[in-house]
Amino acid sequence: MKRILTALVLILVVFALIFFGQLWMITLFSAIVAELAAYEYLKLASVGAEAHGATLRIPSWWMAVGTALAFVVTLPNVPVESQLPVLSGLTLILFAWNGFRAPLMQVLPDTAQGLFGLIYIAYPLTLVPLLWKQEDGPALLLFLMVCVWAGDIAALYIGRAFGKRKLAPRLSPGKTWAGSIASIVGSMIAAGIVIAISYTLTAHGNTLLHISEPLWQSLFLAAILNIAAQLGDLLESAIKRGAGVKDSGTMLPGHGGILDRIDALLLAAPVLWYVLLLKDYFGLGRF
Fold it and tell me: Is 30 part of a structural domain of the chain?
């Protein structure tokens, strides 16, 4: 019951932000989620280091500031050219901090893990408000979320009922090929439902959920996003298994940690962003 209630609350919050929120609200919400997930990442990395007889030296203040700055440099009035200098500056600060404080053999691993944390968690979540700002952004963001959620639900129930052959037992023993295939199909079906609702609303003059790309492109995009989401789930499992833990945290009752809930989104969001960039570059139309 805790799992269902938590999921319902999260879904309602996300839907309210997508359709009734302002850009600053979505940016702030994404930043808070990123900060919490980054905190969990630090704990996972620390546990993983201790398991190998080392001590992780990524200061929490650095991760918190770095995550916040990742969102600051995406604000409307901030030049896009500032993103790389800020990331480079943060890396050099952490490098210098570890260089003077950490054992020499830990300087490079600790600095690399800190930089990876920003790229893995902060950057993908900065794309959420950027996607929302696009033309027909609310529909775009809803499409992304529905594809991720529907695939996860289909994989869970179909995998449990019919799954036999393991998908990646070294990373996640519970995942099966049946669940993986069902996840792709589930995302495509959910995408089809979103498109049908979009067409119906548009036919009645409501452009709240407007989607202009052909049906086959949307279904193909749903499959691509689902595959990315599944990879995101598996790769987060690799981090947890490396640290010897089951969940990234306990912040969400019945669901584990924040990172456990957004792991699929952390790969799916960048993939959607790259697809949009490619469509724009080759003149393939908008979403």
Answer: yes
